[in-house]
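About this split. The held-out portion is used to measure sequence recovery: a designer receives only the structure tokens and must propose an amino acid at every position. Recovery is the fraction of positions where the proposal matches the reference. Here is one held-out target exactly as it appears in the evaluation file.
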């Protein structure tokens, strides 16, 4: 989700009723900009730009930790995306490979996954996609006469990728993301962030009441991310450590209660209100917990592992399917109850992609599919190699 090369910093006019947006929540995106008016707290003050030294005007270490080595992204969101990708893989393998349950084992691996993985990482991934769509639209405004046409093109390309992916993995996420983006996010992109935030809460409640969660949560989660992207929250994470800690504590307490509730319906994981609510609570716990860890001494090492993985989210999400289907048959996981073997397969794929992502991004600016998505969105070839000269900014006449 990119609108310009990472090295550029551009001051953007603020749309009426909307706060400053910053590029942050998608597999490939450029840097952020100043707050509107250049004064978060008073005349002459400004928010740190992506071209500032780590920490910008805020000299705290937390501000520096919020960005990756390139200085142009919110590294915490890349790490969050990497965490979500890893969790989603453990959920995708069993149904695609038609694995069977282990009867008579209430605390089997499958039951553990139902409690702590199923529907727990999908919300994180969805909210981050929504953030990215909002930020892409904002970054496209000064470069295109019709920025929503660019976003529509981006969503259509995503729909094609999702449609192709459906052949191998029925029920995959990319096609629904694209459809919800076209039907829900594009029309609501004319509204201010606070109104979209209210609308997302309404959609989530309706999904819980009428459909007990599941895929029905997708519009609300994407719109929630879209509203957060509009509000500029991603670039203010380093300023709100205490608020994140409070949210983590509340979400953890709520998760315990929700899991006890879900345990009363052990055979309905993924199809009950208890499972959906537990999923949202644990998704909040996992994401805020990781954000807190990234603020500690282990944060740089953790980010170095997860952030490259998350930066290539589109590539890694699709190639994981291309890996686990043949490997699942070769290792005897398909059509079996070998859940330990499935865990080892998933872990092996994740380790392989962690290494591959880091090596690839040491030479290239984007993952291969992220680069193709960027080119097809802007309808021009952008530099891929890190040693290539930056391409000129897209002409303002791009439609």
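Reference sequence for scoring:
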């Amino acid at each position: 989700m990119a609108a310009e090369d990472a090295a550029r910093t551009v001051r953007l006019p603020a749309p009426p009723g909307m706060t400053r947006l910053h590029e942050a929540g998608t597999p490939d995106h450029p840097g952020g900009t100043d707050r509107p008016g250049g004064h978060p707290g008073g005349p002459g003050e400004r928010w740190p730009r992506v071209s500032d030294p780590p920490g910008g005007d805020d000299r705290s270490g937390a501000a520096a930790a919020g960005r990756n080595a390139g200085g142009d992204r919110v590294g915490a969101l890349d790490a969050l995306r990497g965490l979500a990708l890893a969790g989603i893989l453990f959920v995708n393998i069993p149904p695609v490979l038609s694995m069977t349950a282990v009867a008579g084992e209430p605390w089997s691996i499958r039951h553990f996954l139902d409690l702590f993985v199923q529907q727990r990482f999908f919300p994180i991934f969805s909210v981050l996609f929504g953030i990215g769509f909002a930020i892409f639209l904002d970054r496209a405004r000064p470069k295109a006469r019709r920025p929503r046409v660019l976003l529509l093109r981006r969503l259509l390309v995503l729909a094609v990728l999702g449609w192709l992916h459906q052949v191998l993995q029925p029920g995959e996420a990319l096609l629904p993301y694209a459809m919800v983006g076209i039907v829900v996010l594009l029309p609501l992109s004319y509204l201010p962030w606070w109104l979209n935030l209210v609308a997302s809460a309404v959609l989530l409640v309706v999904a819980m009441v009428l459909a007990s969660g599941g895929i029905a949560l997708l519009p609300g989660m994407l719109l929630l991310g879209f509203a957060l992207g509009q509000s500029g929250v991603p670039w203010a994470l380093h300023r709100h450590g205490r608020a994140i800690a409070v949210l983590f504590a509340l979400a953890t307490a709520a998760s315990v209660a929700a899991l006890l509730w879900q345990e009363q319906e052990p055979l309905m994981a993924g199809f009950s209100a208890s499972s959906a609510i537990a999923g949202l609570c644990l998704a909040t716990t996992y994401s805020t917990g990781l954000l807190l860890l990234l603020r500690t001494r282990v944060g740089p090492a953790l980010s170095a592992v997860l952030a490259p993985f998350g930066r290539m989210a589109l590539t890694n999400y699709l190639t994981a399917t291309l890996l686990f289907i043949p490997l699942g048959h070769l290792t005897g996981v398909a059509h079996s109850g070998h859940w330990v073997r499935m865990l080892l397969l998933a872990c092996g794929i994740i380790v392989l992609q962690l290494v591959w992502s880091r090596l690839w991004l040491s030479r290239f600016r984007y993952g291969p599919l992220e680069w193709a998505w960027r080119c097809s969105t802007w309808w021009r070839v952008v530099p891929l190699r890190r040693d290539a000269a930056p391409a000129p900014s897209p002409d303002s006449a791009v439609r």
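Annotator remark: Confidence is low (pLDDT under 50) at residues 1-72, 393-399.
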